[in-house]
Amino acid sequence: MMLRAGLIGIGSMGRHHARVIRETEGMELVAIADPGGDKFGVAKGLEVLPDVDALIAAGIDTAMVAVPTVYHEDVAIKLAEAGIHTMVEKPIAHDVEAGRRVAEAFDKPDLIGAVGYVERCNPAIMALREKLAEGILGEIYQIQTRRQGPFPARISDVGVVKDLATHDIDLTAYVAQSEYENVAAQTSHRSGREFEDMVLVTGRLKNGIIVNHVVNWLSPFKERLTLVTGERGALLADTLNNDLTFFENGTIRTQWDAVAQFRGVSEGAITRFAIEKREPLKVEQERFRDAVNGVGSEIVTMVEGVKTLEVIQAILDSSRTGQSVSLTS
């Protein structure tokens, strides 16, 4: 079955979604909407519709929502009411209550709602999940992420926590297969904008894994790293370069009695895995298509999107109060 796809928002992210939808087998981009027009020239013969109502009237089966975060709730709920399978760019909404309303709107039989956390589809993260499932690290102790780079001019309505850190919160819970138990955070405002541009987060997951996240958009270099440390070594996923490296604990025993009694580790073999490097946005769109067709379940659900937003709000609350915030109810 060919799915008639619509796209609302054809700005910096939407233009890429337009290309990917067109390249996805089983999907046809039949309608686009953006009140700001088509500054990137992605319409390619399609009329640029003014709003979500016009998009719905075009008779679509699926929709991709790539409008600014503040509009996610209104657009998504209208699509849900029209019975249109929808993927909303991350985060699910501008605040937790709005996110819950969106998730509730899509809580209907035979209606698919997804959130576009594309980092789950990064080849390095997909390979990381596979290796962890194989038990390569044994028990997992710690997950660290670093996401740094220059300020993205496209961002105007949120700070670095909702724009960038949200990726790390989602992929950490995904990799660990556990929700967050608590977080403590510090933010900084250095660029003269209303919103924070740097954040440091520490926390613990419900399964006992400790985590920390370093995120900012004021670094003159770009870095996207996820480091998982366990009893047998560490896995480093570089999602910028789509690489996965295994740092194995060494097996050489020390002869120095004082050190030998310390239960630490030594450096061992380093293995860089060869992995298939497909474009994450294409994988994400294929997973959404499959879910709509009832043959896959690897999307990020609206409920998961709300859970991530709850952690994001806890991070902002912690940075404001200076106190650790519990996420257990």
From TrEMBL:
- Pfam short name (any one): GFO_IDH_MocA
What Gene Ontology molecular function terms does this protein carry? nucleotide binding
Q: Which domain of life is it from?
A: Bacteria
Q: Which Gene3D superfamilies match?
A: Dihydrodipicolinate Reductase, domain 2, NAD(P)-binding Rossmann-like Domain
Task: Tell me which residues make up the GFO/IDH/MocA-like oxidoreductase domain.
Answer: 126-235
Signal sequence segment:
none
Coiled-coil ranges from the UniProt annotation: none
Q: Where is the Gfo/Idh/MocA-like oxidoreductase N-terminal domain?
A: 4-116
Q: What is this protein called?
A: Gfo/Idh/MocA family oxidoreductase
> What is the species listed in this Swiss-Prot or TrEMBL entry?
Flaviflexus salsibiostraticola
